[in-house]
Amino acid sequence: MGEEASKSNPKLTLFPLIALIFYEVSGGPFGVEDSVRGGGGPLLSLLGFLVFPLIWSIPEALVTAELATSFPQNGGYVVWICSAFGPFWGFQEGFWKWFSGVMDNALYPVLFLDYMKQSFPIFDRLAARIPALLGITLSLTYLNYRGLHIVGFSAVFLALFSLSPFLIMALLSIPQIRPSRWLLVDFAKVDWPGYFNTMFWNLNYWDKASTLAGEVEDPSKTFPRALVGGLVLVVSSYLIPLLAGTGSFSSSPTEWVDGYFAQVGMFIGGSWLKLWIQLAAAMSNLGLFEAEMSSDSFQLEGMSKMGMLPALFATRSVYGTPTFSILFSATGVIFLSWMSFQEIIEFLNFLYAVGMLLEFAAFITLRLKKPNLYRPYRVPLSTFWATMLCLPPALLLILVMCLASLTTFFVSGAVILVGFILYPFLVQAKNKNWILFEEATGWQQCHSELTDQENSGVELLVSSPLASVEEQLSLMQSDSKPS
Questions:
Q1: What's the CA gap between 447 and 431, in Å, rounded?
Q2: What membrane topology is annotated for this entry (predicted)?
Q3: How far is it, in rounded angstroms, from Cα 97 to Cα 31?
């Protein structure tokens, strides 16, 4: 019944995918306030959202476009790493990125309450905050369970609603703007770790939507277009409100904390705009949570289909959603939501950085070792220049990791160690039939490798060291198809 439900559900089209990418990466300017505080004023914040997309967002989006269209199946980057380095590192990538994603998702109920407590101080009290966090998480998890296409179209309307008060705020602020205020910076007050972590967090996760590539209609065309649309939308949603807020009145950088845009709206437009921004923040966090939950759960579903996780994770509901994967991810969110905003950002950034370094390495490795891999979209650069494209973001990733605290090194190291231990345990569980796994031809059948033939056709070769030669030949014959 799960497979029939999956097939009956409509695929994601361009605009819902743009909205999901927007919410994977951004969701609007909610949370960028810390970039002004960490940067000691508006200048570094504004420069950051101009420069970081060039050295980080564009390279990551281009790499994602090439690899997501080459491997258009659920699991995304897990499949890329498997193809480049084998199933062990594919599993580690999946574990790091899933844990990072769950930590990221734990932020959104926290951000929602940070905005609401400015009008309803009761949410600053633990007795009200804990039930609110649980209620938000459970209700949003249920919506995610009801179907990915519903989440996609909901994200379109949520994006329009969440960004509309900032367009109004920008228009109202024009008479009050003094460009000289944009140039203010106090280097003595710059918090470089906080600045880089906030900037990085607000511009990463371009690869996240690849985990549900199997649910996208015509991914070879839809993914590149959606990534371009998402990039324009994300950068605009940061710069326009920041230009309006920092240029229209003078304020101390220390005032720019989570939820401060509501106060900016109060100053520029009055209480009605403040309330509108708070409501938009609530709606935005709903979209952020739903997009992240979709990616995390479909990543687990894809890993289960590859034979990396028990078959239970691939079980789908009547709505075509991976039920147990959603519940598992939601449980992680609940356990992590007690942490502070900055703690969560630093932890998830570190794990995300480790995973992204592996993705860039896989991108270059596949260019070198599999030059004939069928790539419906190819970054229009030679392998040498593609490597140069990955160098600046790789250096940025290393910088973010070097700026991490000792606590972050310890926590992240513990998570990585758990992944190293968990993989052989699951291999043993599979081999001993302790747990039911979906995949039938061996644990290492974890990816589909496309190779060009002399006649420009392609064959689908399922690589499995544990499968027999006869099985390989049979799979090649039955799955071959023209490009």
A1: 19
A2: Multi-pass membrane protein
A3: 21
